[in-house]
Input
Amino acid sequence: MDWRDEGLVIGVKRHGESAVILELMTRAHGRHAGMVRGGAGRALRSVLQPGNSVEVAWRARLEQHLGAFAVEPLRSRAARLIDRAFALHGVGHLCALLRLLPERDPHGELFDMAEVIADRLDSLDLAPALMARFELALLAALGFGLDLERCALTGETADLAYVSPKTGRAVARAAAAPWRDRLLPFPEFLRQPAPAGADAEELAAAFRLTGHFLQRDVFGPRGLTAPQARALYVAACGAMRA
Amino acid sequence: MAERIAGPEIERLVQLLARLPGLGPRSARRAVLHLMRKREELLGPLGEAMRVAHERILTCTTCGNIDTSDPCAICRDTRRDAGILVIVETVADLWALERAGLLAARYHVLGGVLSPLDGVGPNELNIASLMQRVSEGSVREAIIAVNATVDGQTTAHYLADLLAPLGVKTTRLAHGVPVGGELDYLDEGTLAAALERRTAF
Output
C-alpha cells in the first residue's frame, strides 16, 4: 500500500530514539498517522512542527498498518508564528480541532480551510474570524451542523440574529424578542457567505456560540472538556484586541 | 529459538544496558563484554558508582536540577548572580548551558513544556515554584531559554504573561542562523526570522 498526499502537521510524538509518530491532516486521506524514521533528528525536527505543511509518501504492507511516511517540507510556518502568542495558541487550537475528526476519513474542504487559516494565523484581523467559521464547519463535518439558513419560528431568511442553544437553529431578531435572554447571539460576520473580519464583541459571541455546541455535542459525549488550547486562543485574541 | 550464550545475570545486564539512549542489543552486548574484560578496573567501580548515585541523587527543591544535595550545587553557589534566572525545559538544557560557561546565573528547570495536545498543562510543570521564586523579589531578569519549537515558544509566551505583573525583565534566546549553519539548508521560517532580526554591522 502506498500513496502521496499533502498534509498539515497536527502532532508529533517521539518513538524510540530517532523516530517519531507523525499525525497529519491530509487532503485526500483525512487525519492520518505514520512513523517517520529519523523524524527526531536535526534535519526533520524543524519541518515536523505543528502548523507546517508537508508532502508525504505513505507506505505500509497492509492498509490497516500504521505505516511509514517519507516527508518533504512544503510550507514552514512555525518559525514565522513563534513571536506571537495568539498565533501559537492558534496552531494549538487548530490542531486540537482537527484531532476531533475520525482517523483516515477524508475531509478535503476542512483541510483547505485549515490550510487557509494556518497561512493567516499571525493576522489578528482574519484568523480568529476564520477559526470561528472553521469550528462551525467542523461541527457540520462531525454531524452536528447548525441550521443557520432560516428562522426556526417564521422561516424568514433575513435578520437572523440568534441561535437556539437547544436546537441549533437560527432565529430572526423580531421573532426572538420574547426569548432573547435564553438565545445565543448569531454574529453578523458568520452570516456572511464570504469570510469577513469581526470586532472583539462579535468574535466573543462567535466563540461562545461554537463553544456551546462543541461542548454539548462533541466534547461532552466523548467525556472531554474543551481543550486548553481553545481557551488560550480565545483569551489571547481577546487580550490582543483589547 | 536462539540459544542463550551467557548466564541470566549477564543477559539481564545486556537487557538493562540496551535500554539506555544510544544503545541497542548489539552495542549493549559489546559494552557488557568490555565491562567483563575490565572487571576490576571498570565493572566493579561502575557498579559501586551507580549504587552510590542511586542512593544519593536528589531533585533540587529550589530549581528542579538533579544533584546529590538539596539545594543543588548551583543554588548553593554564592558567586552566581541571583538576580538572573535562566528558565530551561530539562536538566539536559541546564547542563548544556553550564557546559558553555557563558553565564554565572541561577536556573529553574520546568520539567518539560506545555503541550495542550498531549495533556501537559501548567500544573504538570514546575511553574508554581518558579512564580514563588520570582515573587520573592531577588530576580531582576528571567531568561526564558526553551527550545524554538511550537510547544517551547507557547510555553515561553505563557511564562512571559505570568511574569509580566511581577515587574521582572523577561527575555528569551534569539532565533536565527546557527553558527555553522548553511543558508541553503535552513527552512524558510528560520530564514525569515533571521532576516526580521538582522543586526547592523
